[in-house]
Specification:
- Helix 7 runs antiparallel to helix 13 and helix 12 packs antiparallel against helix 13.
- The chain is mainly alpha-helical.
- The C terminus is likely disordered.
- It has 20 helices and no strands.
- Helix content is 82%, strand content 0%.
- The chain is globular.
- The protein has two domains: 177 residues, MFS general substrate transporter like domains (Growth Hormone, Chain: A, Up-down Bundle), CATH 1.20.1250; 196 residues, Growth Hormone, Chain: A (Up-down Bundle), CATH 1.20.1250.
- The longest helix is centred in the last third of the chain and has 35 residues.
Length: 438
């Protein structure tokens, strides 16, 4: 009996919300594949294309905290189904748009419409499933949703041989509307007692916390940049710099999206296993940031490596939110963790917008030759991002460095009198080759 109830909840709650998050990821990454079609059909420049794609992140970021409040007030079923209808309308408008402004408005509608996709799914899991299963189902939710990035490569490329991008968006509009109705009709309502904690107080306690502003720049610059690259700029780089043809491009994007799909599971398992060995989530986050910086440096410096290796690292960093949220869970009690995650997500998506748009602006400063940007343009654009990530990493590590410095400074005070002078004399003799006794 218990097994049948569990399967019923999976079918009626988990899978409908996973479908909504899948569509969210599909919309997020699809412009990387259709960028060439958009430019040729609508005459968009590089900066316009960057703004058009990144406005999704801007609207998504702005909606995170209001959406979290709406989810607490009205529940995930009603909020998600209503917003997905807005996304469907945006996809329909995108399909018929011919000018930049209408495309921009349509893309913004899509971003707002899917802004609750992940948070609604996570909220539904908390409401309907046992506490001990929440973390496991969260990982599966993110993993299944990120299959949308997989779909936005080879499968979409195959569809584009049968139809143009406008017809594709018409299909996406219909599918999104059907998913909205599915969630509203199939998902049961769950009545909960509203939280008595003042919203302003909880938000101020998050934004006023120094620990939050220590992790936020590092997490935002890494995760947001990875989203920016995966969602748009990987494709132009692979064509202009790596010289890939269309078939090779789609293949590499497909591999990157597969790596992305498994990233959430990998990071979740890593955090779980390392914590059992006494390694904190902060240490894991720093390691991930270093790996991301090294991978981008390998691309910028054109190191003799198969490009799929550093680009796979870029793809997997896009799911490092699993680690960032684990750090947040260490910082805050359960009643604050949700809003703290939402506040961090605002910065994730806000940085993704800035990075994606600014990259297009920087690339626009170089003229094209035979339709391709120069390698130097990409090196400068990507290098600026890496410089900011290094600065954020230094800011995050500053308390550790200060602690290490203070420990080193305390060594003379805990050594016997005259011992420090003897050590200095010994070092001097070693450097000068003096055999004098000391």
């Amino acid at each position: 009996m218990q097994i049948s109830i569990a399967w019923c909840r999976l079918a009626r709650v988990f899978l409908p919300f996973a479908a909504g998050y899948y569509l969210s990821y599909l919309f997020r990454t699809i412009n990387a594949l259709i960028a060439g079609h958009l430019s040729s059909d609508t005459g968009l420049g590089t900066a316009d294309l960057g703004l058009l794609t990144s406005v999704y992140f801007l609207v998504f970021a702005a909606a995170q905290i209001p959406v979290g409040i709406l989810l607490d007030r009205f529940g995930p079923r009603r909020v998600q189904s209503a917003l997905l209808l807005l996304a469907a309308a945006g996809a329909g408008l995108f399909a018929v748009s011919t000018g930049f402004l209408s495309l921009l408005i349509a893309r913004a509608m899509i971003g707002l419409g899917v802004a609750a996709a992940l948070m609604a799914g996570l909220k539904a899991i908390v409401l309907w499933f046992p506490r001990e299963r929440v973390a496991l189902l969260n990982g599966y939710m993110i993993m299944l949703g990120s299959l949308g990035a997989v779909t936005a490569t080879a499968p979409v490329e195959h569809l584009l041989t049968w139809m143009d991008w406008r017809q594709l968006f018409e299909i996406l509009a219909a599918t999104t509307a059907a998913t909205a109705m599915l969630i509203y009709v199939v998902v049961p309502e769950r009545v909960t007692v509203p939280s008595r904690v003042p919203i302003s107080a909880t938000l101020s306690s998050v934004f006023g916390d120094k620990r939050f502003w220590r992790i936020a720049p590092l997490s935002a610059t890494c995760v947001g940049s990875a989203w920016s690259l995966q969602g748009l700029w990987a494709s132009p780089w692979l064509v202009d710099v790596e010289g890939l043809n269309r078939t090779s491009l789609v293949r590499q994007l497909f591999i990157m999206s597969l790596v992305l799909s498994g990233g959430a599971w990998l990071f979740g398992t890593t955090v779980y296993c390392f914590r059992r060995r006494g390694v904190g989530a902060e240490t894991i986050l720093v390691t991930i940031a270093l790996l991301f910086i090294v991978a981008q440096a390998a691309l910028i410096l054109r190191m003799p490596l198969p490009s799929i290796l550093p680009w796979s690292v870029v793809a997997i960093i896009a799911t490092a939110t699993v680690v960032s949220f684990a750090v947040i869970a260490d910082y805050y009690p359960p009643e604050l963790a949700g809003r703290a995650n939402g506040a961090l997500n605002v910065l994730h998506f806000g940085w993704a917008f800035l990075a994606q748009y600014a990259t297009g602006v920087v690339l626009e400063q170089w003229s094209t030759e035979d339709g391709h940007r120069s390698i130097v343009a990409y090196q400068v654009a990507f290098g600026l991002n890496v410089a900011l990530q290094i600065a954020a990493l230094a800011w995050f590590a500053l308390p550790w460095l200060q602690s290490f410095t203070s420990r080193m400074a305390s060594i003379p005070s805990i050594m016997p009198a005259g011992a420090f002078d003897a050590v200095e004399a010994g070092i001097f003799c070693e450097q000068t080759g003096d055999d004098a006794e000391w």
